[in-house]
């Protein structure tokens, strides 16, 4: 059984219009929400073995908060350049290439690709994963390369403004 946790990066700062999109940092709310959402995972004893993140500053910063709260070493964060601005099919290729030694992986990325991936993986009724939103999807497979569209089962969906904890 494989479990995939999709995490959209926390809220980013748009104040500096000189910055490229890739280099936008987290804003005040993003810096608050990321550790809060990681704590919710910890409270549910949902700790991924590996965090695979977009290298964009806002996504990597989100991953660092999650790694810190969940007690993962920084070595537990892998940057994957193809996650940035990825389509659902590109994200699927990345997932299919995960090392089978890991049974629970978190993928930290961006919309619209992340939401489209979630919809395609488990036919969920979520139409927009908000910033720092998380969705846990479980698959009945032993190998990541067996995962394809509509083979997952949504186990959890949470986001900063929800009342689920």
UniProtKB/TrEMBL annotation:
InterPro entries in the cross-refs: His_Pase_superF_clade-1 (IPR013078), His_PPase_superfam (IPR029033)
Pfam families the UniProt entry points to: His_Phos_1
SUPFAM superfamilies in UniProt: Phosphoglycerate mutase-like
Classification lineage: Bacteria, Pseudomonadati, Bacteroidota, Sphingobacteriia, Sphingobacteriales
Binding site for substrate: 58
Name of this protein: Histidine phosphatase family protein
Organism: Pararcticibacter amylolyticus
């Amino acid at each position: 059984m494989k479990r995939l946790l999709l995490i959209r990066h926390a809220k980013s700062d748009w104040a500096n219009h000189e910055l490229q999109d890739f280099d936008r940092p987290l804003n005040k709310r993003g810096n608050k929400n990321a550790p809060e959402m990681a704590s919710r995972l910890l409270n549910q004893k949902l700790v991924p073995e590996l965090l695979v993140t977009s290298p964009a500053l806002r996504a990597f910063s989100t991953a660092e908060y999650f790694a810190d709260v969940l007690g993962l070493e920084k070595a537990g964060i892998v940057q994957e350049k193809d996650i940035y601005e990825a389509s659902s099919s590109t994200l699927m290729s990345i997932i299919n290439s995960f090392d089978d030694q890991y049974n629970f992986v978190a993928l930290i990325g961006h919309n619209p690709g992340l939401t489209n991936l979630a919809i395609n993986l488990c036919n969920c009724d979520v139409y927009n994963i908000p910033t720092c939103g998380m969705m846990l999807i479980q698959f009945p497979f032993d190998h990541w390369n067996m995962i394809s569209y509509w083979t997952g089962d949504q186990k959890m969906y949470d986001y900063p403004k929800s009342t689920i904890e």
